[in-house]
Model the fold of this input.
Amino acid sequence: MKNEFYYKNYPWMNADQLECFELLCDIHGGGNHLFGKIHPCGESGIYINSTCTHYMSTFDYSNLTRAVVLAHDRMIRFEIEPSGPRMLKLIAHKRHSRDGRMHERHPTIEDAITDIRNNHGEVTA
Done:
């Protein structure tokens, strides 16, 4: 495991929560860049109230795009909420299916792109 030191600090994590933790680590360039305590969020998720130390955008400083692509590839629902002054709450929930009810599934990035373009139109240059 890439971040064994951090797993030792959170022995309560199950396999789904560990996968969510890996996502957060990969988004931030390693667990050493996560600032805040990891908390359980149900049986399949985690959250962290984190100080805003990294830029998150779609292209340059593309951590936001990385988060979206990795979340879709790994079937992890990723959410960002406000959490206080200069803080964000990052929430991740593992899903196990591409089909099914809204709260059970996670589409591929390609399906999500198609859905968005069908609902909002595609911009062409």
Q: What stands out?
A: The chain has one domain: 13-120.
